[in-house]
Specification:
3'(2'), 5'-bisphosphate nucleotidase, about 25% strand, alpha/beta, about 250 residues, Fructose-1,6-Bisphosphatase, Chain A, domain 1, 7 helices, metal ion binding, D-Maltodextrin-Binding Protein, domain 2, 5-stranded mixed beta sheet, EC 3.1.3.7
């Protein structure tokens, strides 16, 4: 049976892929890097097969699938990351995610981010209320390699650093009331941010490159150097502090 609504499809795929990943991890057959590889491959196979079955006319870009240049000629392109935060998944942490999004003419119009370790899925088309920011702002940064720009801007803002795993977990931490700013300048790929950006935009947050320009997807070069996700009231100050660093 087909799923007519793109939002329902994105959420269903993200949730089911998350269940598959938890089953792979619970099997006890893999650990560490081999667990990450097994999870990536298994979830990717499910997502790719399901999207080709449900949306055969749309383009597809997945981290774990060989890129097909035909997507560049298509208006609607699904962009997925079967496991965002493979290290965290392999370490049996909760700060990893499954990303399913669709870009239309380069714009991240719809997405779902599943957080299987938290038993939650957040959707761009079903926004909730973002909790208010505390007096001392919180900036999510990489657990292992916090970006210089992020740490320096945090110092300027008097913000607390919150180390966290995957990009999806970091972005969703703002919606969940666990953080306020996600500033990243260490380089990512389209699948790392498309779904989180779509969801964040749907929930009314600011999303851009760190120079303030829009995030554009379904490009020939899928590398994306940086991004900023935060409440709209913080965007101007953060962007100004980033500019002052250059």
């Amino acid at each position: 049976m087909g799923i007519a609504h793109d939002g329902d499809l994105a959420a269903k795929l993200a949730v089911e892929a998350g269940k598959i990943l938890l089953q792979v991890r619970a099997s006890g057959l893999f650990e560490g890097k081999s667990l990450g590889k097994a999870g990536d491959q298994t979830a990717n196979q499910f997502l790719v097969h399901a999207l080709r079955e449900q949306r055969p006319e749309d383009g597809l870009l997945s981290e774990e699938e060989k890129d097909n240049a035909e997507r560049l000629n298509q208006s609607r392109v699904w962009i997925v990351d079967p496991v965002d935060g493979t290290r965290e998944y392999g370490e049996e942490r909760a700060d990893w995610a499954v990303h399913v999004a669709i870009a239309v003419d380069g714009a991240p119009v719809l997405g779902a981010v599943a957080l299987p370790g938290c038993d939650q899925v957040l959707r761009s088309d079903q926004p909730g209320e973002v909790p208010p920011a505390p007096e001392v702002l919180r900036m999510v940064v990489s657990r292992t390699r916090p970006a210089r720009e992020a740490t320096e801007v945090a110092t300027k803002l008097g913000a607390e650093l919150v180390p966290m795993g995957s990009a999806g977990a970091k972005a969703m931490a703002i919606l969940r009331g666990e953080a306020d700013i996600y500033l990243h300048s260490g380089g990512q790929y389209e699948w790392d941010s498309c779904a989180p950006v779509a969801v964040a935009l749907g929930w009314g947050l600011h999303c851009s490159r760190i120079d303030g320009s829009p995030l554009v997807y379904n490009q020939q070069d899928v590398y994306m150097p940086d991004l900023l996700i935060c409440r709209k009231e913080h965007a101007e100050r953060v962007l100004a502090e980033v500019t002052a660093l250059s």
